[in-house]
Amino acid sequence: MQTRKLGTQGLEVSMQGLGCMGMSEFYGDTDEPESIATIHRALELGVNLLDTADMYGPFTNERLVGRAIAGRRDKVVLATKFGIERGEEGERRGVRGDPEYVKRACAASLERLGVEHIDLYYQHRVDPKVPIEETVGAMAELVAEGKVRYLGLSEAAPETIRRAYEVHPISALQTEYSLWSRDPEEQILPTIRELGIGFVAYSPLGRGFLSGSFKSPADIPEGDFRRYSPRFQGENFERNLTIVKRVKELAEEKGATPAQLALAWVHHQGDDVVPIPGTKRRRYLEENVGATEIALSQQDLARLDEAAPRGSAAGDRYPDMSTVNG
Questions:
Q1: 125 vs 85, 132, 197, 278, 298, CA distance in Å?
Q2: Which of 16, 253, 290, 320 is in the most buried spot, having the most CB atoms within 10 Å?
Q3: Which tens digits make up the pLDDT trace of 64-107?
Q4: pLDDT at residue 320 greater than cutoff 70
Q5: Which of 20, 13, 62, 10 has its CA nearest to residue 41?
Q6: Is residue 260 helix, strand or coil?
Q7: How many CB atoms lie within 10 A of CB 194?
Q8: Which helix H or strand E contains 134, and what residues bound it?
Q9: Quick one: residue 277, left, alpha or beta (phi over 0 = left, psi -120 to 50 = alpha)?
Q10: CA nearest to 81, candidates 65, 182, 190, 238
Q11: Residue 317 pLDDT > 70, yes or no?
């Protein structure tokens, strides 16, 4: 497994990470033993960047990841997030970025994860009520205290990123990015490249749609939030299938699966881009890791760009399930 640098502060991770969210919530049934086995298999394959957040579960995903990495801490680059406040029953209380909350959230995450420090600590969503300087100032104090090594932001706007960076270097910006969610190409990627910030792409398979596993909305399991996502409904679903069909055709030419080709496309968007496809099963993890071995020519990239040009996906990008109004 090759590695990539995120930012200029020394953070180096596997070129592909593992999103752990679906192991605890949002994507239908859960299976903790298989999820832990998936994390162990990821580490065996050289995937060391594990991505979680306090609000996944809520709180249960950090505990699961903590159990999985017990005795394996030295093999893991551990990323978690704060900022979307939820109660024990899952109720959503809003977005918080005040310094007191930042410190409290970090302490709680350290305890749930069973670790002494977090490698990459993200603000999950920007709190519009608190100046970003105050939030990042509190995060910087966590670095000084040794509780956090590197700082990140998630779904932040360019100007917010710039203001944050003036307070403390930001190593990674995490945002949705895939063949059917290419908005970051307009302003986000140019901004972070100017500042020397790495890019972590979540939902690089379009929340699973680009894998080709969904033939109709009826294929989405009960209890899966994608049933309410605009891109998975009605005419949008049918229109988006045309993108998947073309990706599948191109994948067959490369001897790859649609998921592998879609991930390979993300890998080829720059050495500062690290996708974190999520899965809770070893077989899909192994398939996803296979994408790291796929080389794409300029002609391949041009054909994929033609198959899924910016803005081609039908339906609004669903505001990630961790938003306040979800």
A1: 10, 11, 17, 19, 35
A2: 16
A3: 999 999 999 999 999 999 999 999 888 989 999 999 999 999 99
A4: no
A5: 20
A6: helix
A7: 12
A8: helix 132-144
A9: beta
A10: 65
A11: no
State both tokens at 193. 């490249």
Give residue for tokens 């306040």.
Answer: 324
Residue whose C-alpha is closest to residue 238's, from 181, 313, 183, 176: 313
Residue with tokens 């990015």, as numbered in its chain: 177
d(CA 154, CA 82): 10
Predicted TM-score (pTM) of this structure: 0.91
Mind listing the pLDDT tens digit for each residue in 246-266? 999 999 999 999 999 999 999
| H-run or E-run covering 153 | strand 148-154
Amino acid at 131: P
Q: Give the single-character DSSP code of 21.
A: G
Contact between residue 144 and residue 101 where contact means Cβ atoms under 8 Å apart: no
Distance CA 112, CA 82 (A): 13
Q: Using an 8 Å Cβ cutoff, are 125 and 84 in contact?
A: yes
